[in-house]
Amino acid sequence: MPNIHSFYDGTETLDLEGGCNVVLRKYLSERDFRKASNQLLASRRMVENTAGTQITAAIDPMAYNVSLMESSILSWNLTDEHDRPVAVNNKNIEGLPNIAFRKILDRVLELNKEVEPEVAAKEEGEFRDSGEDGDRVPEDAGDQDTTGV
To answer: Which terminal Cβ of the chain has fewer Cβ within 10 Å, N or C?
Structure first.
């Protein structure tokens, strides 16, 4: 019987060149995205003054990206200058060479790409409502009379 958790079982090994690779979860959960979204505004401050309450926040897209990567990376074979394994954590992800960081991030985002409804419709062909019954017909069907009259 199909199991929803099987979506999260898929992995992919990404070659970072030079014998380095990273194993990624193919799909992240909404919980992973919520955790990453919370990192965007992690530095919120609430200030109360005589004029009322003011909330300020600094947006941190890097923290969002690192959180997504940390949720996605299952393992890697990276070692330090003494050939000791490097742990997968925020600090080490942030310390990756930019080319490796970007390659991993790009693949994580691609594997978890959100498709806008307009894009999905375009990929499956343009559709429009045909009238009173709300049937969907291809955009290029023209305004032909299909009632048989």
So the answer is: N
